[in-house]
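Hi R.,

As promised on Friday, here is the backbone we talked about, encoded as structure tokens. Could you run it through your design pipeline when you get a chance and send me back a sequence?
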């Protein structure tokens, strides 16, 4: 049974009858190409390696070359059910996570509850993937991101914050930091969500935001750092394509900073995207 935590903030969700699954061959139109794209991908990997030099990796994830389901929401809610796909590094609390040519992929987003193999649909219009490890405090999360397209479904109409977001110090789906790295409205943002309120049982507080829009169909290096300072405040920095686009230091004010270790992960709203080289490294205050 689908639980409310996989809905988007502020929206009541109703299930539709299953419809025919999107053809996985659709991803062929987004396949890697030789020449310039390969060179750009190689450059992006070098950028991430330079930025992370000297920081010990706490978690380094990878995906197989084969096109296959890694895990989905059904495995999260029924992990002991026969035929479900469990992943060593990831828990998919909503949607489906596939591999494609060494990258993680949301599949073509729709609003259909998936079966064990996600062959009838993906439900990735509301995509949530978190790490199994929950001991990340002062860390840098780095990866390469490629946005394919934004979509909308009957259950998930287009809204401003559709896009890709990074989870930090994830305690629960109601208590965490969220860093928006790509949004439909061209905004990047840092928010804290605390329990109690209209957004699926919580309330979001915007800590910082700025205009920035990533290009589509290109690999872009992403780097998000969170540290607790000696002053007991929390600093979060967002770097995209080697450019620092957002920094915020959260002090004790009307909402307290999240000090505890937690999970990290990725969130997608009405967005088809690929990611690779997802690494969590230690970060010094």
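Update: got your reply. Pasting your designed sequence below so it's all in one thread:
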């Amino acid at each position: 049974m689908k639980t409310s935590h996989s809905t988007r903030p502020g929206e009541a969700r109703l299930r539709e009858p299953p419809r025919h699954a999107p053809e996985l061959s659709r991803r062929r139109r987004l396949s890697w190409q030789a020449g310039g794209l390969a060179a750009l991908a190689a450059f992006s990997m070098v950028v991430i390696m330079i930025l992370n030099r000297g920081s010990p990796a706490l978690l380094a994830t990878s995906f197989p070359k084969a096109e296959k389901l890694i895990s989905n929401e059904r495995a999260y809610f029924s992990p002991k059910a026969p035929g479900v796909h469990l992943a060593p590094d990831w828990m998919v609390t909503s949607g489906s996570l596939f591999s494609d040519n060494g990258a993680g992929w949301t599949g073509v987003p729709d609003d259909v509850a998936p079966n064990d193999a996600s062959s009838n649909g993906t439900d990735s219009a509301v995509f949530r993937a978190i790490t199994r490890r929950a001991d990340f405090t002062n860390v840098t999360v780095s990866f390469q991101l490629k946005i394919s397209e934004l979509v909308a479904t009957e259950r998930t109409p287009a809204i401003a914050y559709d896009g890709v977001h990074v989870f930090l110090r994830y305690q629960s789906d109601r208590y965490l930091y969220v860093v928006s790295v790509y949004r439909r409205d061209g905004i990047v943002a840092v928010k804290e969500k605390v329990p109690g309120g209209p957004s699926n049982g919580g309330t979001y507080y915007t800590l910082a935001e700025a205009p920035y829009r990533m290009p589509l169909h290109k690999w872009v290096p992403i780097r998000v750092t969170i540290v607790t300072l000696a002053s007991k405040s929390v600093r979060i920095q967002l770097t995209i394509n080697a450019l620092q686009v957002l920094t915020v230091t959260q002090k004790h004010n009307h909402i307290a900073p999240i000090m505890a270790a937690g999970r990290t992960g990725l969130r997608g709203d009405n967005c088809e995207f690929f990611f690779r080289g997802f690494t969590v490294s230690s970060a010094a205050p």
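One thing I noticed while checking it: The mean pLDDT is 87.

Thanks again,
M.
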